[in-house]
Design a protein that fits this description.
17 helices, Aspartate Aminotransferase, domain 2, 2 domains, binds pyridoxal-5'-phosphate, 7-stranded mixed sheet, alpha/beta, Aspartate Aminotransferase, domain 1, 4-stranded antiparallel sheet
Length: 415
């Protein structure tokens, strides 16, 4: 960063330090990834200087001839990759994308349903402290206490009882596949809009490593920076089933994003999303997505050998939630300890967490970022060993951090 390091040494130095931290430690926060330098170049381009309120061909400002082409390419790539009818690529991130879905489909006070936050759901799916819970009558469903899976029979009964206008399915900490077909039938039983929030699993869906919700839901929302490996951003898609239910849905969603909730789109981010979608359409991305899951499965099995207890007993996707109660350590303590050993992870609630949401009993681990570095099953076994070692013997943290650093050197970040 030749310009920045001259002009603002304070910020340049901090960016360098963060780059070093990412380079020399394992990023195992399940929602994180390392995007390509090509994505970052588009993100850091002059497109950040341009106002483009509106949509391609219908802007409120002049000078958008190239911007229109960029946004159209982005939309076309997303439509093709996910097999959907309509895409809005303007949401600034995942939460604003979800906000737009509420605005497009519901009136304030109407009933919506979502998976509860402490059960692995997302804030925006109806938590009291978030807009979904504040402005709508949000009914929250749970996972089964024993299996930790969504109990579709219970959900079907709740849906019949509450007759929601909108049902959210998607999660930040749910290690299993969703049964999209069943969910589609449940939503149809009361004529509800069904929105799949695939923020975490978008890259797995794009790469064929997770069943796609597209045939069974009306709306799909996603972030672009998690398994999809793009810049921070969001998208809203309308499926063929969504169009059939409501031909006006694309228009309602576009209006909800702009002028409903946002002003000018971040066209630099949209260009970077287009680049990421091109990458995600290449054959190598399928290999990447499958390897994420192979790595997660290997890590989960290895951790079980060391006596770790996993939510639902394992994983189908890129993440796992570990119940640490038998290890006599809280989620927060484990997070700090792992950090000091060069493994970045986050504390997380486990289903029916007796310790409450502020001092959760678990941690969440994900493999998207370390798979981007090229790590495979062999490295997962090493990492599981280190996790066990440091949790059973905290004094080993420094030694493990050195070993992590050595491993990271062998698996450099994308160049
Ligand atoms: C990450 C996430 C979001 C929100 O994304 P932000 O970009 O952080 O606003 C929404 N839904 C789910 C399921 C997520 O995992």
């Amino acid at each position: 960063m030749p310009k920045l390091s001259k002009q603002d040494t304070q910020i340049a130095k901090l960016i360098d330090l963060e780059a070093k931290r990412q380079k020399e430690s394992l990023q195992m926060i399940a929602s994180e990834n390392h995007c390509s330098p090509a994505v970052r170049e588009a993100l850091g381009s002059v497109l950040t200087d341009k106002y483009a309120e509106g949509y391609p061909g219908k802007r409120y400002y002049g000078g958008n001839q190239y911007i229109d082409m960029v946004e159209n390419i982005c939309i076309d790539r997303a439509k093709k990759l996910f097999g959907v009818e309509h895409v809005n690529v303007q949401p600034h991130s995942g939460s604003p994308a979800n906000a737009a879905v509420y605005v497009a489909t519901c009136l304030p006070g109407e009933t919506i349903m979502g998976l509860a936050l402490p059960m692995g759901g997302h804030l925006t799916h109806g938590t009291k402290i978030s807009f979904g819970g504040k402005f709508f009558n949000a009914v929250q469903y749970a996972v089964d206490e024993k299996t930790h899976l969504i109990n579709y029979d219970t959900l079907a009964k709740m849906v019949l009882e509450h007759k929601p206008k909108l049902i959210w399915v998607g999660a930040t900490a749910y290690p299993r596949f969703f049964d999209w077909k069943k969910l589609g039938e449940i939503a149809d039983s009361v004529g509800a809009y069904l929105a799949a929030d695939i923020a975490h699993i978008a890259g797995l869906v794009a790469g064929g490593a997770h069943p796609s919700p597209v045939p069974y839901v009306h709306i799909v929302t996603t972030t672009t920076h998690k398994t999809l490996r793009g810049p921070r951003g969001g998208m809203i898609m309308v499926t063929a089933k969504g169009l059939k239910k409501d031909a006006e849905l694309p228009k309602k969603i576009d209006k909800a994003v702009f002028p409903g909730l946002q002003g000018g789109p971040h066209e630099n981010a949209i260009a970077a999303i287009a680049v990421c979608l091109k990458e995600a359409s290449a054959p190598a991305f399928k290999t990447y997505a499958k390897q994420i899951v192979k790595n997660a499965k290997t890590l989960a099995e290895e951790l079980k050998k060391y006596g770790f207890i996993l939510m639902s007993g394992g994983t189908d996707n890129h993440l796992m939630v570990i119940d640490l109660r038998n290890k006599n350590i809280t989620g927060a303590e484990a997070q700090d300890l792992l950090e000091s050993a060069g493994i970045s992870a986050n504390r997380n609630s486990i289903p029916y967490d007796p310790a409450g949401p502020f001092k959760p009993s678990g941690i969440r681990l994900g493999t998207p970022a370390i798979t981007t570095r090229g790590m495979k099953e062999k490295e997962m076994k090493l990492i599981a060993g280190w996790i066990d070692e440091v949790i059973s013997n905290p004094s080993k943290a420094k030694k493990i951090a050195q070993e992590v650093k050595k491993l990271c050197k062998k698996f450099p970040l994308p160049k």
